[in-house]
Give the backbone structure.
Amino acid sequence: MKFYKSLKLNRLNSKGQSAVEFAFIIPIIFIFFYAVLEFSFLFVRQQRISSISRETANAAFRDCASLSESAIGPCLDKTLAGVHQNVQSILPDFDNKGTVIVSVYGLDTTNNSNPPPLKSLGVKKIGSGSNASHYSLQSIDATVVRNQGVVVVGEAFYAYTPLTPIEGLLNLLSLPKVIYENSIF
């Protein structure tokens, strides 16, 4: 009988326990929910930037790689104009937050050295970002250029801003400030 009385007393003394537990658990649940939401948003943006980079390099390689050096610049302008229309449909805020850079590298046939060195045949950029290309003549494998004649590099940058209002807390998760993707054809 004493045992049942002690259980009844414990039950009466623990009325506020559920409220306190709820007060501790609910912020953790919200943080978890916002983190899942933020990572899914970031993942979708990353996939879109990857697609933009790939399509830019592919279109430039398909349309401009076989042209003469003097025709590559106008061809890249035309290609980037088409890419820009597609980018606007995928990421409406890309003009304010993004940059696409396409670079074409080939062999310097005017140089008589053996093997001929590489040179930039054209570099074009769209978007308002201040990002610079991560590629240079030193970072391109010369044997690839010698085998196929030309290498096209498409790069896409996007300034990432968190979706959720708890940005300071999400900085602990080490989210990137700029999403970067490149593709080489």
